[in-house]
Amino acid sequence: MQNFHLTRRAVLAGLGATALSARAGFADPAPIPLTAQRALAQIAPEGYPQTEVWSYDGRLPGPELRLAQGTRLQRRFVNSLEVPSSVHWHGIRIENAMDGVAGLTQEAVAPGASFDYDFVAPDAGTYWYHAHTHSMEQVARGLSGALIVQERDAPDVDRDEVLMFNDWLLDPQTAQIAPDFSHPMDLSHGGRFGNLIGTNGRFALTLRAKRHERLRLRLINAANARIFVLRLTGLSGWQVALDGMPLPAPEPVAQEIVLAPAQRIDLIVDVTAEGQEAAIERLGNDAQWSRQVGVQITGAASRSRRAPPAALPPNPKMDRPDLAQARPLEMKIEGGAMGRMPMSRMRGLMQSGKFWTLGGQAGPVDPPFARLFLGEPVRLRMVNDTAFPHAMHLHGMHFREVLEGERFGPMRDTLLTEAGASHEIAFTADNPGKWLLHCHMLAHAAAGMTSWIEVS
Ligand code: C2O
Ligand code: CU
């Protein structure tokens, strides 16, 4: 990775981690460290100063972690920041104790301490990892990275590229991250939006490809609040997976690709541009610094594939929950600016720094929103009675949207609910433990849109 330099503190912390691993080496070989540390990164356009970020291993985004489906990921998370932290593996069907939610599945890892994450990744696909302690601030400061679980039979493509879309709220002169993480405007409206759009930690990213090449693009939205709307030019092809989970059949890429916070979309596209350039354009012009992701075309591939790609191999558990037997639940999403929550209730909430409720509660609170029996099918109606969209994420289990006529939508772990809309999701509660259900607009999650369920 270019564009970053380790700070002295980070280097010292790294040495500390090495010493730690050597000591632990008596029994098992110590897991590879993944270290949260300060670093400098050139996020802003050239000519601006570097930005101090919180990083994993001094990189922005964090190192791309790749493993084969069904194999183990073992990482010693070393916290070299001055604040507690923890790592969540977003979208992985994981053992509860490894889910990384401070205060729910583990204690936050204190500064200078470490925690060993160790889990098997049962499903192939595009996932990501990010801080889950004060995530609104920690993710906005840079603590996220891609987690790729590779299929045993990978599709036939020439390149496999991860594109992590993010935005950064930077001071326009100093290019440093705006440090106010409790602004009532962010908390009560759409969330914290950046003024610089970046991809893979950079302002201007250009991929290289040959004409007629076939690419797999793994799009990840790591932003705090921004819904990216993307359009391909000079590239055409298919959408093959959502939130890691393969679609039953490849579908032509939509004119406008909507990627809500925390969502992922896998595309398989052919380079069809006649000229020298193709692009992944971002629609909307609401950031001070924004540039499309360019694809520079250098020559032509010797062969071109015309046939559409096959579907990705299905993951082991892509069942359809039994709707007839499913327990019905309803969760109202309320609050925020311009909503219908009575002012008297809103005032009460605001006294505790909250603006939103899920199922009537500004969470996280005890008891859980629901206690489910292991193996129980559930249908959950989420009613967005607010003036904003919300990206609702369930930990530990993927779900399907229940569409008109009781048809099932694709499997997802994060669903975008538009203002005023109501969506029903269904899943089988087959993973025991305490699982968060929250909005991935992280300012909303911090301001009350955090709930949880317990499966036992
Ligand atoms: Cu991406 Cu609660 O997480
Ligand atoms: Cu929200």
Automatic annotation (TrEMBL):
Annotated ranges, domain Plastocyanin-like: 42-152, 352-454
Enumerate the residue ranges of region (Disordered): 299-322
Q: Which UniProt keywords apply?
A: Capsid protein, Cell cycle, Cell division, Metal-binding, Oxidoreductase, Signal, Virion
CDD domains from the UniProt entry: CuRO_1_CumA_like
Signal sequence, start to end: 1-24
* Pfam family of the protein (one): Cu-oxidase_2
**A biological process term (GO) from this entry:** cell division
Any idea which GO molecular function terms this record carries?
Answer: copper ion binding; oxidoreductase activity
Protein's UniProt name: Multicopper oxidase with three cupredoxin domains (Includes cell division protein FtsP and spore coat protein CotA)
Organism, by scientific name, is Rhodobacter aestuarii
Q: What is the lineage of its organism?
A: Bacteria, Pseudomonadati, Pseudomonadota, Alphaproteobacteria, Rhodobacterales
